[in-house]
Amino acid sequence: MNPSPARPSVLFVCVHNAGRSQMAAAFLTRLGQGRVEVRSAGSAPAETVNPAVVEAMAEAGIDISAETPKVLTTEAVQASDVVITMGCGDACPVFPGKRYLDWKLDDPAGQGLGAVRLIRDQIESRIRTLLHELTAGPGQAAP
Question: 9-135, which class in CATH?
Answer without folding.
Answer: alpha beta
